[in-house]
Design goal:
365 residues; binds pyridoxal-5'-phosphate; alpha/beta; seven-stranded mixed β-sheet
Length: 365
């Protein structure tokens, strides 16, 4: 029997994709070959100690590979609740915090929904706004690249934003908001205010978790990818009031955290001493890098409360990034953000990695 051929052309097929998706570009960081010193994704330079990895590998043989995990990783949810002194019902764990941002899009944004974002902000949030066809209002930064709290308060009031996102310390700038500034935005907003705290462990300012009791519209987003050194394992989580969590769970896919990732996260949470020591080392590391950068004639550095700094020189950032990469050092060109034309971002490395970066920069400049 002859099989009918398709009347649809490959172009017709692509027309099935929503314009909001077709207009996007794929998120690609891209690591060129021959990179020895990787300082471009704000990761921890420290992998888990061998003895902890061995312990995990032993534990993996106990895992039933043929069984689904629970919908939410219950043991991890409890451990994270204890870590943050909140109830397990206040937590949703995801496959990295990036993955959870899509739940925000599904739950809070329809075409035309008012949304407010400060600039320059971790680009994923703008992408979520575009993918959902939200009505986005962006608030420009102050001259020192800090978020403009007055501008944000005004914008959430004027637009009636259903969703506002803050990040503190913020990526890409490293600048932080004070708790009272976050509280002002949350109090002014009639909608949800997400506070992305991916870098909170590096900052001396208290966490917005404190606001959860009095502000039912606040969601705090966290990750184990930075201070906890688990970027490859993919664990992020949110904290909010249980009533909100319960509703958000309706938009979640089940089983987003596999049994291995849960065990790895639990193992690290059982070692607060290790995490604290590493955070301290990363803080020392980034301070050393910042101080060293300040000694270059042609470099201007932005103050940062995170494990990375951004800096600018008189040279085009793409050219400088390529020349550093030729010397085996990878940093990130930030020029894609309109306010950060000419800026590069470098994260805290080991002593040897920092030295390699600074030597390469000196040779290049
Ligand atoms: C502000 C911010 N939020 C979230 C993330 C991503 O975290 P995760 O690895 O948990 O998806 C990053 C990573 O660079 C970030 O800078």
């Amino acid at each position: 029997m002859a099989v009918e051929t398709s009347a649809t052309t490959p172009d017709d097929v692509l027309d099935c994709i929503r314009p909001a998706v077709r207009n996007e570009s794929e998120y690609v960081v891209g690591t060129p070959p021959d990179i020895e010193v990787k300082l471009n994704q704000n990761e921890s330079p420290f992998d888990l100690p061998d003895e902890l990895k061995d312990e995990l590998l032993d534990g993996f043989s106990e895992v039933e590979f043929n069984r689904y995990p629970t919908e939410q990783p219950d043991r991890l949810r409890h451990a994270l609740a204890e870590h943050n002194d909140v109830s397990p019902e206040s937590i949703i764990v995801g496959n990295g915090s990036n993955e959870i941002t899509y739940t925000f899009g599904l739950a809070f944004l329809e075409p035309g929904t008012p949304m407010v974002l400060p600039r320059p902000l971790f680009s994923l949030y703008e992408k979520v706004a575009r993918l959902q066809d939200a009505d986005l209002t962006e608030v420009p930064p102050r001259d020192d690249l800090r978020f403009d709290t007055d501008g944000l308060v005004q914008a959430v009031r004027d637009t009636g934003a259903n969703l506002t996102v803050l990040a503190t310390p913020n990526n890409p700038t490293g600048r932080a908001l004070r708790l009272d500034e976050i509280a002002r935005v949350a109090s002014a907003a009639s909608g949800i205010v997400v506070v992305d705290e991916a870098y909170v462990e590096f900052n001396s300012e208290p966490s917005a978790v404190q606001l959860l009791d009095d502000h039912p519209n606040v969601i705090v987003l966290r990750t184990l990818s930075k201070a906890f050194g688990l970027a490859g394992i993919r664990i992020g989580y949110l904290m909010a009031q249980p009533a909100l969590v319960q509703e958000l769970m309706k938009a979640r896919l089940p089983f987003m955290v596999d049994r291995f990732a849960e065990q790895a996260a639990l193992a690290v949470l059982r070692r607060p001493d290790l995490v604290e020591e590493r955070v301290r080392q990363m803080q020392v590391s980034i301070t050393e890098v910042r101080e060293a950068l300040k000694t270059f004639d042609d470099v201007e550095v932005v103050p940062s409360q995170a494990n990375f700094v951004i800096f600018t020189t008189s040279r085009p950032a793409d050219e400088l990034q390529d020349q550093l990469a030729e010397r085996g050092v990878l940093v990130r060109n930030m020029s894609g953000y309109s306010e950060l034309e000419g800026y590069l971002r470098v994260n805290a490395g080991t002593r040897a990695e920092n030295k390699a970066f600074l030597t390469a920069l000196e040779e290049t400049l």
